[in-house]
């Protein structure tokens, strides 16, 4: 630069660079994306120069918003900026006036930029240089949806680093909420409608509004930013500023079909190219192009397809925003369902009485009514228990504190609404999980969780959520497909993952070689709903102080209450010497105990031993050659008779029930000194030959029924009572008549008893 006054230097540099980019826009020698990026860098440079001249030494920071914030500035756009001061002491209105004059004053040389300060707390009515406290107070308490979207593109240009960091950190929390928030779509629908109604007349058969027309630049930006704000709290990777980058990420993360993402990106930059062209003609901030005037060939070609592209863009945007809900008569819908009068008066009125928490009550009350009607209709279509579904819905609404965001999300996410109605109408167990932890709906939408935290406190909450989420997801699927092998495999995998991560975290503070040896259903990879974790701690040599610390902390962390209950209940009674035995056992001592001292029932239990996180499945089978003595068999038979109950309808403890069959299969393997292929009940049945195959079929069906009962009953049950509401719900879930279900269970148990009289060594004379 020369020795010209700063204002003249800035105008001269601006004009030279602008002219170069304007020429490139008019002759199509550079892409719009490249021109916008380089022009944005030029704007940054000029703004920095002006800022440092005016605010030198002051604790103030300068931020860009809008297209400058995303480095997509068009040639004759305003620059949207925000100034924030650390405190009132740093606010200098004289410096601000100097800054504004330097940039905006027009002379024979022109001007530097039109500067827009309106995107500040309180807009035109707010302080021109808000303090950090004013910034946080306004957006923390009064910030609106459009401002959340605007802050997606907030970017620090220069100034005090402390102010920069505070503003950027707060704005991310303001824009990107941890939990999914679909209420903003309703606000956007209103905003978009206002824009279109205000500017619709600008688009005619001859004139196209590139920016504010239907399917124009603003529509693409609103669409991309809306999806970012909705999902960016759960996935920080979506917190980017550029439109192309946002659309690419939304496609990669399967939040937007790839063909739509590619189209919107191409359409967006086509619009921006035409926009730069019309602004380059006279350095005017215009977004209108007259299709009847003379234009270069590349513009004429672009204009041929532009109307159809804008129409397609409009359809995509409307696909996200949907139609506004209409006011509906809930009373009429209730009459259609035939609810009892007392239910309508008491239960339903209680649901309606929970006032929606919202600043826009009229809009969100419509959304809530529409959701309730859709929920009722879905319950009816799915043949769920309507009264029970409404009881659970009441608790769920109470759990969500009647937040408008939940109603909007559920009304929009039809599949999620259907799954929620399915759970509430069919499974009190899973529904209670969601009533206690409604925020799990976020992860239920994604079918995944975020990366686990390194902080132990956060990790524990995440592991508790992972376990609950696994039960909700797998339970919902099981209600539909009744696939027992997939269910137990997934529930077991979740337990393994939870334990591995917890153990790894504890070992970071207390280095240890301690291992968890899973037993029972967990060891056999057969975990079901409401299952305890049976296990012991094993170490390679004599336990150290750290080993005991890890073990005790592991037990405490796994069983202490979290939101929605503890992570898992545990059972450690299978350690040598029972409850009185040490909680950490050297591996060699355990092997010697099983080989030389363990009673028959203990050796049975360790057939299902499995180290968590290790490749071994049956680490303690060397004792199998001991077999079972007559004394062992007498002891096992005594245990059996103590366990079984006289009721033939007890799925678990009846003679011929689940426990009787499991223990019989284990006794068979030990008695015949057979080494099973794996540490699970299926392998034990396989060792029993053809009869074992029949037992396997009977057992699997009983277990399938038992797991379904856990889902449809309000409490943990193993007894089938024909006069109990859970029995009717069970028959409905299994799609079988109640009397047929009773007969089937009786046949299965009787068939097991017949087979076990021949196969079970405990029942044989000794």
UniProtKB/TrEMBL annotation:
Sorted UniProt keywords: ATP-binding, Magnesium, Multifunctional enzyme, Nucleotide-binding, Nucleotidyltransferase, Transferase
Gene3D superfamilies associated with the record: Beta Polymerase, domain 2, Nucleotidyltransferases domain 2
Biological process terms in GO annotation: regulation of glutamine family amino acid metabolic process
GO cellular component: cytosol
Coiled-coil stretches noted in the UniProt entry, renumbered to this chain: none
Ranges of residues in domain PII-uridylyltransferase/Glutamine-synthetase adenylyltransferase: 207-292, 648-747
Pfam families noted in UniProt: GlnD_UR_UTase (PF08335), GlnE (PF03710)
Domain Glutamate-ammonia ligase adenylyltransferase repeated: 56-167, 507-616
Keyword Transport: no
GO molecular function terms attached to this record: [glutamate-ammonia-ligase] adenylyltransferase activity; ATP binding
Signal peptide range in chain numbering: none
Protein name listed in UniProt: Glutamine-synthetase adenylyltransferase
Gene source species: Bdellovibrio bacteriovorus
Lineage: Bacteria, Pseudomonadati, Bdellovibrionota, Bdellovibrionia, Bdellovibrionales
